[in-house]
Amino acid sequence: MAEASRWHRGGASKHKLHYRKEVEITTTLQELLLYFIFLINLCILTFGIVNPHMYYLNKVMSSLFLDTSVPGEERINFKSIRSITDFWKFMEGPLLEGLYWDSWYNNQQLYNLKNSSRIYYENILLGVPRVRQLKVRNNTCKVYSSFQSLMSECYGKYTSANEDLSNFGLQINTEWRYSTSNTNSPWHWGFLGVYRNGGYIFTLSKSKSETKNKFIDLQLNSWITRGTRVIFIDFSVYNANVNLFCIIRLVAEFPATGGILTSWQFYSVKLLRYVSYYDYFIASCEITFCIFLFVFTTQEVKKIKEFKSAYFKSIWNWLELLLLLLCFVAVSFNTYCNVQIFLLLGQLLKSTEQYSDFYFLACWHIYYNNIIAITIFFAWIKIFKFISFNKTMSQLSSTVSRCIKDIVGFAIMFFIIFFAYAQLGFLVFGSQVDDFSTFQNSIFAQFRIVLGDFNFAGIQQANPILGPIYFITFIFFVFFVLLNMFLAIINDTYSEVKADYSIGRRPDFELGKMIKQSYKNVLEKFRLKKAQKDEDKKTKGSGDLAEQARREGFDENEIQKAEQMKKWKERLEKKYYSTEIQDDYQPVTQEEFREFSECLTK
Q1: Which residues have C-beta within 8 Å of that of residue 321, sequence separation ≥ 6?
Q2: Please, what is the end-to-end C-alpha distance for the chain in angstroms?
Q3: Cα 9 from chain centroid?
Q4: CA 32 to CA 316: how far, in whole Å?
Q5: CATH architecture for residues 398-503
Q6: Mean of all residue pLDDT scores within the chain
Q7: Can you tell which superkingdom this protein's organism belongs to (predicted)?
Q8: Are 165 and 155 in contact (CB under 8 A)?
């Protein structure tokens, strides 16, 4: 504020300040234009790697393998499997029928049977499917002494330490012998644990009848035992019409409590990246993206060298660094995916008689999609850096910055109460209500209650006394009290900001006005619009305005009040805001507010 006061006393010439403002406007417009081109390029790149056919391919595959019921038993499909008997019925029914498409619907043979099956006549089955089982050893848990006479065996939950690595059953083929993993595929994160690669593995035959006999033999020889904890069914298909691979994994988990929990993964990915002319256009966008990344990185390095530690005091600079980091990670993931596809794809397509493990490539492709999605999210957030010069956006940013301390204090109080209710719900309803089965589920369930999505009947049935008490008190304290306190904090601060802006404390320039003025200057330069007259000739003086007000019927008291208000506002603008320095918020003093009130009451 002291520097601002010195400036008002003549520290810099108007011509110099005007020049600095013009430079700032020009620099901002140049940065905005460059970033706008970068953002368009990034949008084209991200939407280019996503194909609308991905959803439809996942949909038809999931409908075939998840919703198709066992013939004669409409209730049994993969989603509804609850016992080992249901599992074998699915394997011999919907799975076999879905994997082997030997002929057209009128039994006409369309292609050589030695070739792979064509699911839905359009999707080529790559290689052969694979079935993999993981088990746990006996005595991985302890039976209480009083029950040892009734039960001597104990199979605990799956962990890598409890996994059974020994051969079992017939011990003649790979399905009875433990096989270590020879792939780099990530471990599978299921409902009940994290499962590593390897296990008891067998691949299906290209013949439907041989595969069915294989299933019958495994069932008769008890391939699934009490120690079984998970079975994976993996296969991949390729649709040449849309140039998409669909990598499918069906998972059946066998919890220690008994029963079966099913889950699934359908990944439609574009592993053959550059085929059509549009794909090569996307490749050019990727090269342009790398050029932009180099330019932005160079700019930020220069800023860090120039401003040093002061550079890290701006939240926009931290956002810039985060965006650059995400861009580098995205480029690294993309490069790694392309290298792995180049090295592995040809080799996988040659092994038509073996299982083709595309799961590794699909996972890395999904990782790349996720990181590029996060990158473009923060790229859009950065737009606020440029539109913060707008009056409305500046008001919003000022509101958030001024009430951040109050929000932090409120958040501490809010989450203390919120987590207390979450733990109460987990302990009381966790054993009976799915929404509260874990502490994490309890937290998400309470957020859903705030949004109006809740299962009150389930809570009440789990505990007729504590259920309604929990629900009513949670709604009262969290929804009616705490959330309204949060809104009151925001509303009160916003009112202060609007009052501050009403007396002249506002952005030095607004982006909309900058663009509009530049547009007018271009029109005037090309003589498409007449140049406006000078400010002195265009506007009327205060005396002319007073005379006009008298002619329009305003009395002398109203005219004097208006003139006093104008002088008071100009004095406050000179004191609290300068075009050179935008210092921190300074509240209006009581004396100044009293003077303002006198102007209104005179």
Answers
A1: 300
A2: 32
A3: 52
A4: 14
A5: Orthogonal Bundle (1.10)
A6: 81
A7: Eukaryota
A8: no
pLDDT reported for residue 65: 93
Please choose, from the candidates 48, 199, 202, the residue with its C-alpha nearest in 3D space to the C-alpha of residue 135: 199
List, in sequence order, the alpha helices (H) in 100-251: 208-220
Which residues, in sequence order, are CB contacts of 393 under 8 Å at separation 6+? 384, 387
The label of the residue with tokens 């007073």 reads: 546
Best CA proximity match to 394, nearest among 310, 311, 509, 313: 509
The C-alpha atoms of residue 224 and residue 258 are separated, in whole angstroms, by: 13
Distance CA 185, CA 524 (A): 64
In this predicted structure, the answer to whether residue 539 has a pLDDT above a threshold of 50 is no
Backbone angles phi, psi at 128, to 5 degrees: -125, 150
d(C-alpha 396, C-alpha 234), whole Å: 51
Q: What is the pTM of this model?
A: 0.75
The secondary structure element, H or E, covering residue 268 is strand 261-269
Q: 156-213, pLDDT tens digit by residue?
A: 999 988 999 999 888 888 889 998 877 778 889 988 889 998 899 999 988 888 999 9
Q: How far apart are the C-alpha atoms of 527 and 549, rounded to whole Å?
A: 36
Q: Cβ(81)–Cβ(260) under 8 Å?
A: yes
The closest of 133, 210, 218 to 178, measured between CA atoms, is 133
- Using a 10 angstrom Cβ sphere, with 0-12 exposed, 13-18 middle and 19 or more buried, the burial of residue 87 is buried
Q: What is the largest CA-CA distance in the chain?
A: 110
DSSP 8-state class, residue 554: -
Radius of gyration of the chain (CA): 35
3-state secondary structure of 257: coil
Alpha-carbon torsion 547, 552, 558, 564, what sign? negative
Among 73, 28, 123, which Cα is nearest to 515's? 28
Q: Contacts from 57-60 at CB under 8 Å and sequence distance 24+? A: 57/123, 57/239, 57/242, 57/244, 57/246, 57/268, 58/246, 58/266, 58/268, 60/120
Between CA 389 and CA 28 the distance in angstroms is 10
- Here the tokens at position 94 are 């919907």
Decide if pLDDT at 586 tops 90. Answer: no
Euclidean distance between CA atoms 107 and 100, whole angstroms: 13
| Cβ atoms 84, 260 nearer than 8 A | yes
The per-residue pLDDT for range 427-454, each reduced to its tens digit, is 999 888 988 988 999 999 999 998 888 8
Q: Cβ atoms within 10 A of the Cβ of 82, count?
A: 14
Half-sphere exposure of 306 (CA within 13 A, CB side): 6
Ranges 39-43, 195-199, 309-313, 560-564: which has the least confidence: 560-564
CA-to-CA distance for 467 and 461, rounded, in angstroms? Answer: 8
- DSSP for 383-423? HHHHHTTSHHHHHHHHHHHHSHHHHHHHHHHHHHHHHHHHH
Higher pLDDT, 251 or 383: 251
**Using one digit for the tens of pLDDT, what is the confidence trace for 400-416?**
888 888 899 999 999 99
The C-alpha atoms of residue 552 and residue 506 are separated, in whole angstroms, by 32
Answer left, alpha or beta for residue 171, where phi above 0 means left and psi between -120 and 50 means alpha. left
Domain layout of the chain by residue ranges: 20-47+280-389, 52-269, 398-503, 557-569+586-601
Going by C-alpha positions, the residue among 360, 366, 371 that lies closest to residue 187 is 360
Checking DSSP bridges between strand 188-189 and strand 244-253, what pairing results, if any? unpaired
Banded pLDDT at 109 (limits 50, 70, 90) = low
